[in-house]
Structure formats: C-alpha cells, structure tokens
C-alpha cells in the first residue's frame, strides 16, 4: 500500500502536512503465449516437445500447468507442472497412443502460477495430430554364400555368411510380408522349394522385437514372386526393440549347372 504526504513552503513558513488516501498496487498475473508446435500441426513424432512463453511483470517465481487432452478417446490425457518463466519447453513422457489415422487427435493448453496470487487463465486450446509412419530398412541387405558345390548346404544361422538385418524405422507396429525371385535355374518354376528357405530370428540384444508365435521362426520355403507371405507379425518400432534377422538356408540342387545364382527378396511393411 502506498500513500503520499505534501506540505507547502513560501520561503518563510511551512504549511501543515496533507496526506493522500492509500493506493494499493495489485499483483499482475503472468501471461502465457503458446509457441510450438503450431496449432493444427501434424507430426510423426510420438513424443513431441511443446514450447510456450511465460511473462510475469512482477518478477515472481513462476510455474506452468501443462494439459494435453485426447479427443475421441477417453484415456491418454497428460498433464505436468513445469517451473520457470520466459521460453518454457516440455517433452512428453512416453509415446502418445492415438493417431489421426484413426480420427484421434490431441488439444493442449497452458496456464501459469506466480506463487503470489494464483493462476492465469488457460490459453485457448491448440491442436496436434499424431500420424502413423510406416518404414523399414535393411541395414544388411546382401547375403553372399560364395562358391558351393552340387548337393551342398549352407545357412546364415550362426554365420558367416550373416543374415539380413531388418529395422523398423517408423513409429508404429508393422507386419512384414515377403516374396522372392527364383534362385535356381534347374528347378523350373523353383519357388517355393526346400532348396531355398528362410526364417525370422531375434537380433542380438533385441529379443521380443516381434510377435514370435505369429511370425515364421522355423525354416520355411521362400514364396515365389507372385505371392506375398507374412513373415513378421507385430514388429516393434521402439528404439532397442526394433530389429530382426532374416536367416537364409540353401541347398544346391544336384541338377544345378555352374554359374552365378541370385535372388531378389522383397519385404513390404504394413501397419498392424
């Protein structure tokens, strides 16, 4: 509370003091402005970072309340308290579970508390859409068995040669189908044949990267180029659990002639 007093002086004498009424200086609530991601943003990042600005004219200690609400779903709402003024940043903990592909979206808003009087108003809601991203990558994309003789067998199990290595680089669980061109020339329309087989296996240190019971984990004849066969079910995208091996097993037919033999295997991912 502030007040002032005044008296006059004419060069010889002072007048009596006259005092004002009290003036009360009120606290100013902090002001919040949302910054990023922009309203209506669509992203493939399932753990996005949110930014907003908090300004408090009084210089009080300030914290923000962050609220994220999933619409068209009844769960996966998030909230947090974040300390500090100025440009404030908050990264979601744990993947957002619902996707715009299925008509789910999220609204987010913020309000601030100045520790003196209370909370500002909530900002207007801004919308963010999380979109699926289906992508796989062969980090080992060539298997070379070298020279072999008729009737001989070799496999990538245990290596060398080493198996294909497939990584889910997307942001959703996927199923992976595959087919392949013929490897042998002496068997006519060779695929599928027991002379050319595959199986799915765990990559070192990444057990549980896919649904083992529903994937092909024992040697199975490679399908021909006109038929896709589901090889991997429920392939995880989470870092550290997103890699699998594809072992190859070949037996050279007794009727196979000499020369270089090759086959192209095609892998196709689709969201589960």
Please, could you describe this protein's structure?
- The model has no long low-confidence stretch (mean pLDDT about 95).
- Strands 11, 12, 13, 15, 16 and 18 form a 6-stranded antiparallel beta sheet that branches. Strands 4-10-9-6-7 form a 5-stranded mixed beta sheet, with no helix packed on it.
- The chain is mainly β and about 270 residues long.
- The radius of gyration is 33 Å and the shape is rod-shaped.
- The relative contact order is 0.15.
- Helices cover about 0% and strands about 40% of the residues.
- The protein has strands spanning about 5, 20, 30-35, 40-45, 50-55, 65-70, 80-85, 85-90, 105-115, 125-130, 135-140, 155, 165-170, 175-180, 195-200, 220, 230-235, 245-250, 265-270.
- It is built from no helices and 19 strands.
């Amino acid at each position: 509370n502030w007040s002032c007093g005044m008296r006059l002086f004419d060069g010889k004498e002072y007048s009596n003091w006259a005092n004002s009424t009290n003036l009360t200086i009120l606290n100013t609530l902090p002001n919040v402005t949302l910054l990023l991601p922009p309203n209506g943003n669509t992203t493939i990042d399932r753990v996005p970072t949110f930014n907003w600005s908090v300004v408090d004219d009084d210089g009080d200690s300030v914290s923000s309340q962050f609220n994220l609400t999933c619409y068209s779903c009844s769960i996966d709402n998030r909230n947090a308290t974040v300390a500090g003024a100025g440009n404030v940043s908050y990264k979601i903990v744990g993947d957002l579970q619902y996707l715009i592909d299925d008509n789910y979206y999220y609204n987010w808003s913020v309000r601030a508390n100045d520790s003196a009087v209370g909370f500002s108003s909530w900002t207007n809601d801004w919308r963010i859409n999380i979109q699926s991203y289906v992508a796989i990558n062969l980090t080992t994309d060539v298997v070379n068995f070298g020279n072999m003789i008729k009737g001989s067998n070799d496999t990538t199990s245990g290596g060398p040669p080493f198996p294909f290595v497939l990584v889910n680089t997307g942001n959703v669980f996927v199923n992976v189908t595959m087919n392949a061109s013929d490897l042998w020339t002496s068997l006519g329309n060779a695929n599928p044949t027991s002379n050319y087989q595959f199986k799915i296996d765990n990559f070192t240190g990444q057990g549980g990267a896919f649904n083992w019971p529903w994937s092909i984990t024992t040697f199975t004849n490679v399908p021909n180029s006109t038929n896709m066969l589901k090889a991997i079910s429920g392939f995880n995208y989470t870092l550290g659990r997103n890699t699998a091996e594809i072992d190859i097993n070949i037996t050279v037919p007794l009727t196979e002639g000499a020369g270089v033999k090759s086959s192209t295997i095609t892998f196709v991912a689709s969201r589960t």
